[in-house]
Design a protein that fits this description.
The chain has about 300 residues and is mainly beta. Helices cover about 10% and strands about 40% of the residues. Strand 19 and strand 20 form a beta hairpin.
Length: about 300
């Protein structure tokens, strides 16, 4: 009987492993390949999806925001967008941007008119807002690393004390620094329930996860993945997508479950889009790519 129990237990264990492998492989649609949608840009960044599934992205060196529509058409949304980098849509359908021409956070309506939400912290310019995420109540988290730009007229020296992560309250009246112990925070994404925040430290080549308090502050910092990232996204299953060399996917437990090679020198950022939110859009150097997934992106 002991031997029977042993074999049954082994078969159960093998079955669980097989099920996990099938689940991990299934995040990419069967037979799907990375598809090049557009090229000829200088450096693509910051993809963000609106409620219809259209994807907006930046060509930062050319100071443009572009749009890839759900019916597969490329258009220019706006020029002279403050050298926009990371983008994200707020609950009202405005496009938020890390516009680092003057190191600001912008809110851009669909007519292209912008409002400056953040221009400084503690009376000093920011280093250079890079990427952002909006939590469910409208509060904004953004990273502020220092990447010296050749178009700056300001001093190239660091403006703030260190390279931090900031939080802007939903009423836009309170701006606080919520993390100051990262070497160079870059990619950032949170969970749809607003309870956890993932931040990539690209210089340390690590990604961390924090618990989010109701007041916007962070606690419980933990190592999540032994890999940094330029930009990040999350799907409805809680998997985290990191960029740099292709796209590397980690489960919510921090286990690597997939790697998507991309034919580009650098993969800058990712987001889900399309009418069913099952297309993974990838901004990579001079290109815009996508690949069909079996999982749906989390808005």
């Amino acid at each position: 009987m002991g031997r029977t129990v042993y074999f049954v237990a082994n078969w159960i264990f093998i079955g669980i492993l097989m099920a996990n492998c099938q689940e991990n492989k299934s995040i990419i649609a069967h037979g799907a390949q990375v598809e090049k949608l557009a090229e000829g840009f200088r450096f693509t960044e910051g993809p963000a999806v609106d409620m219809a599934g259209n994807v907006y992205f930046t060509d930062q060196p050319n100071n443009m925001i572009l749009k890839w529509s759900v019916d597969d058409k490329l258009s220019t949304f706006g020029t002279n967008m403050g050298r926009a980098n990371g983008l994200y849509f707020d609950r009202e359908g405005n496009l938020l941007s890390c516009s680092d021409l003057d190191n600001e956070i912008w809110q851009i309506d669909m007519n292209g008119t912008h409002t400056v939400l953040v221009s400084d912290y503690d009376g000093k310019k920011l280093n250079g807002p890079n990427d952002l995420w909006v939590r469910p109540d409208g509060g904004i988290y953004f990273t502020d690393p220092l990447y010296v730009r050749d178009y700056w007229t300001r001093s190239p020296e660091m403006q703030q004390t260190g390279e931090g992560v900031y939080y802007l309250s939903p009423d836009r009246k309170r701006l606080i620094k919520v993390a100051d112990d990262l070497e160079k925070p870059n990619g950032i994404i949170g969970t749809p329930d607003g309870k956890r925040l993932y931040v990539a430290d690209i210089k340390a080549n690590k990604t961390y996860v924090f618990d989010i308090r109701p007041d916007g502050t962070l606690t419980g910092k933990k190592a999540f993945a032994p890999l940094g990232s330029d930009g990040m996204t999350i799907d409805k299953a809680g998997n985290i997508y990191l960029t740099g060399q292709g796209v590397t996917v980690f489960s919510s437990e921090g286990m690597q479950i997939a790697h998507i090679p991309v034919d580009a020198n650098w993969t800058a950022n990712v987001c889900f889009g399309g009418s069913d939110m099952k297309m993974l859009f990838i901004t990579a150097s001079q290109y815009l790519y996508r690949i069909r997934m079996n999982v749906e992106g989390a808005r």
